[in-house]
Fold:
Amino acid sequence: MIEVTHLTKHYGSNAAVDDLSFTVEKGQIYGFLGPNGAGKSTTMNILTGYIAPTSGEVVIDGHNILEEPEEARKCIGYLPEIPPVYPDMTVLEYLQFAAELKKISKSEREAMILEVMQTTGLMEMQGRLIRNLSKGYRQRTGLAQAVLGYPDIIILDEPMVGLDPKQIIEIRELIKSLGQKHTVILSSHILSEISAICDHIMIIAHGKLVASDTPENLMNLMRGSGSLELTIRAKEADARRMLSSLPGVQSLDVKDSAEAGSCDVLIKTEADNDLREMIFYMCAQEKKAILRMQHTHVSLEDIFLELTEDHPAEQKPKKKRRFGFGGKTAKQDVDDGEFSADSNENMDETAGKWNGDADDGAGADGSGNAAGGGYGTEGTPELKNHSGAADPQEGEE
Ligand code: ADP
Ligand code: MG
Structure:
């Protein structure tokens, strides 16, 4: 349905989209997930033909977006980040206008507009001026516009931003129902939103695709394994001997503790293998006191931050990974032979970037950390966000 190969978009020397390749199959709901400034909107704007890529190719249903833009765009309904609605029109007027733009034949127009207003729950608002609509209804109006003409592909950029929880649920249901007939791509910087709706998640960070899988597979990867941290009053060799006999231990790391005569242990197991009681009785039997025992749980968000953090490993010095004992990311730790209790370090560092709902680039680039400044290649002035008037390419269509 959509084939994207080696897509790149540079703004000055910064790559907003960096060698992105993926395919989108018919009849599924795809989620672009990534922190602000990751390149989601830029990618969507390229897919929909609003801006041209620096290099790479987009083929929509067999039509190259640059060579056959009309044909390619005909397959797509798009709700940009800021819904392109006109405040001085009523909902109905606006949809009539949009239908005209989409060259929907006069004979079909009326019936289709009615149908779309029904699907999007806009019937009782059709006579209202758009300026007087709540954010939720305005979003629905934008959505209705995207759905008009029943394009095969519907692309929605952050459709849930600014909605209250009730509206989010409603729009979510709406998108799910659209997914039954259409291929839908939506973007969000919120993990739970994407995992609630999408059949397939693509995690984007710094313009690159860092993971692409079903929510189930990602969850499994993310949930990964469990880990247990201990401090035991025992010699290193004794601790190792005792604990290595436990069932289902994937890795065991023992080293001297700061506390004299004791050692710190990290045990990695399958997520559902809880060894705490067994360890308690074993240590009691061997008369080795447990000074500390703690289950460390790696959350979805942790892994998320991990995936979206230091990628790509640009000029900044590579940092030790501190968490992520599960799944792919875990390996490094274990291989490093390193473990650390302060798994919050990276999270704190990136929290502003991920959670901060600061506008686009500002969120990432303004966080001032080395990771967030992934684009900040040497000598490059800080990126402005979209409205950065200083950008020479601003306003490009
Ligand atoms: P997202 O939608 O994931 O938040 P964007 O695609 O909007 O991310 O932006 C990706 C990066 O490209 C950001 O660093 C942003 O500041 C930069 N960017 C986007 N549009 C422009 C533009 N017109 N001029 C300069 N930089 C831009
Ligand atoms: Mg965006």
In short: Residues 106-119 form the longest helix (14 residues). DSSP finds 14 helices and 14 strands in the chain. Residues 311-397 have pLDDT under 50 and may be disordered. The CA atoms of residues 164 and 394 lie 32 Å apart.
